[in-house]
Structure prediction request, 331 residues.
Amino acid sequence: MILPPFTLHEPKTVDEAVALKTKFGKDADFVAGGTDLLCNYKYEINAKPHVISLGTVTELKSFDTTRIGAGALLDDVMTDSGMRRDLPVIPAAIGVISSHLLRQTGTVGGNLMVDTRCFWFNQSKFWRDSISGCLKSEGDACRVVWGAKECVAVYSGDLAPVLITLGASVTIAGPKGRRVVPLGEFYEHDGIKRHVLGEGELLVEIRIPTEARTWKASYRKLRTRESFDFPVLGVAVAAKVDGDLLLDAHVNLGAVHTTPLSRDGAISQFIGKRIDEATASEIGEAVADGLVIHNNTAMTPAYRRKMVAVFTKRCFLDVTGKRAVAETASR
Ligand SMILES: Cc1cc2nc3c(=O)[nH]c(=O)nc-3n(C[C@H](O)[C@H](O)[C@H](O)COP(=O)(O)OP(=O)(O)OC[C@H]3O[C@@H](n4cnc5c(N)ncnc54)[C@H](O)[C@@H]3O)c2cc1C
Prediction:
């Protein structure tokens, strides 16, 4: 498949990038590493005539353990010694994103902004035309939920659930200046709208509170191919613990909903309890209970729901020292 034609713009600053996006509006996309966007373009999925490269905007590239520029390469963050020491769950989660080659091109911002996925949508134009498209491509009907008015394509990035449990926020730049939004409030339900970015806005950086370093965290991922693949389930847990006593915790699920999904409400009853095998199992069941998972990515909803309970249990054992912290299911 070949890329459809587009005009490439190469701004040098965030302000120039914002001005270009404001000028071209819905006729333009930002591109960072291009490992998600350009694959979709090759499938002729919502390709635009103008593409604004963020690869030439130096402000976006720097990072440390308190802030990560949206344009920082996944591989650079993963191999950074400070990050490995202070926030090991972030390199661990990056280590299971796609492949080594893609991590050397893909960025942290691009990962947070990765498009939602659905097997009625991530197909060639020829294939999509055979079913007259769907809500998110050229059609006007959802192929997953009969009569649905909103797209249920699944948020399938690995890093967002982890960063949300660590209390991260994002700095957004736009025509009206800059604003900071908690990452947990950044995503929006509709699989087409996806997030709160307005016209002309882009992600500048991810801020991580220093307190996150004192929490224990774990990320576990289910995927079809262990060599490289999008998650069909990601479970992130960050907890404040004293030995096996759970003082506070956040749980966030990836790849089960149109957005990263907080399950903090399901685990509040376990705060103040000691975590052993049995309690961790109960927490896993509580997190999985009542989840609505649609049949629109690999593996059945019933299996993925079961694995929510299994991985949540393992994550809670990880953070209370019963298994290696940040050990992932695929390693
Ligand atoms: C074979 C394969 C396997 C993959 N496996 C995984 C996986 O396991 N886990 C996973 O999470 N991802 C996976 N991906 C997707 C992708 O590689 C990563 O998510 C990567 O981090 C995307 O970063 P990028 O810089 O290449 O994004 P791009 O493709 O450049 O952009 C992605 C989206 O983000 C927008 N964007 C980028 N930067 C900004 C910004 N600063 N502000 C506003 N919008 C922005 C773009 O407009 C675009 O909509 C896979 C991709 C492939 C091709």
